[in-house]
């Protein structure tokens, strides 16, 4: 198992728009492509409270490449994402990490 941790750093004041896009658009596309989410978190204490962190679970990097690429090239997704940013961008920067659990991790 591989866990992908993604951190979306939003433009000031745009975190609610990102929540709305995940809640009402993105998660349906994740379901469509079999992308399994572990969870979503906002930052309570840290360098910025304009961030959304989420984790996805993959069986392999090959599975991630196939499913993520299909999702990212979906024309309906691209159109809906563009519409949510028609007036101003939502995400300024994305951090991406691929994590492998240790043999003593509760999540393996």
From TrEMBL:
It holds the Pfam family NIPSNAP. It comes from Rouxiella badensis. This is NIPSNAP family protein. The lineage of its organism: Bacteria, Pseudomonadati, Pseudomonadota, Gammaproteobacteria, Enterobacterales. SUPFAM superfamilies: Dimeric alpha+beta barrel (SSF54909). Coiled coil: none annotated. It comes from the Bacteria. Residues 3-105 form the NIPSNAP domain.
């Amino acid at each position: 198992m591989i866990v992908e941790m993604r951190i979306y750093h939003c433009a000031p004041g745009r975190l609610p728009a990102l929540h709305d896009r995940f809640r009402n658009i993105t998660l349906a596309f994740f379901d469509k492509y079999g992308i399994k989410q572990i969870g979503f978190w906002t930052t309570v204490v840290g360098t910025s409270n304009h961030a959304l962190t989420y984790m996805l679970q993959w069986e392999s990097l090959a599975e991630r490449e196939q499913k993520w690429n299909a999702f990212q090239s979906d024309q309906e997704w691209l159109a809906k994402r563009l519409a949510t940013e028609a007036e101003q961008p939502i995400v300024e920067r994305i951090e991406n990490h691929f994590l492998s659990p240790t043999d003593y991790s509760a999540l393996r």
